[in-house]
Amino acid sequence: MDVSFRVALTRDPIDLAALHATTPRDGALCLFAGVVRNENAGRPVSHLEYEAYEEMARPLMEEIAHETLQRWPVTRVEMIHRLGRLEIGDASVAVAVIAPHRDAAFAACRHAIDALKSRVPIWKKEHYADGAQWLEQAHPPAPAREGS
User: Fold this and answer.
1) Over its length of 148 residues, how does the chain's per-residue pLDDT go in tens digits?
2) What is the CATH number of domain 4-13+25-129?
3) Least packed by Cβ within 10 Å: which of 22, 30, 93, 111?
């Protein structure tokens, strides 16, 4: 089975439509897109900024893609994260997993986004009408369930 991956950090908008290149043997495409919302914990958000330690982030994203390809029977993994200023409604992160069957696609996609959020050095700053603050992840993500 041919397997492949692509990871990227970009300051350009994420083209979600470009993340669905399946082959005739694929039966599932699972796409997660994180989108900038207009509030957090009841506080209005005007926009976000993302920064990354890029020299470390890309190799870790590649490691997660390889790990995902090894753990589940999937044919392709794509992970893209935006950097810089993002407006409300912009896609900030996208993970696409293509596989012959949906169970593997869902499990692998969940694993990839959770691993990206917990292990890759990317930081988010929320901007409000009265200031801004860097956010830290409140708790580690729940472990992904394998199988079924």
Assistant:
1) 456 999 999 999 999 999 988 889 999 999 999 999 999 989 999 999 999 999 999 999 999 999 999 999 999 999 999 999 999 999 999 999 999 999 999 999 999 999 999 999 999 999 999 999 998 753 334 445 555 4
2) 3.90.1170.40
3) 22
Measure Cα distances from 129 to 38, 41, 79, 86, 95 in Å.
12, 15, 31, 16, 31
> Domain limits of the chain?
4-13+25-129
Tokens 């470390």 locate to 56
For 144, the 3-state DSSP assignment is coil
pTM of the model: 0.87
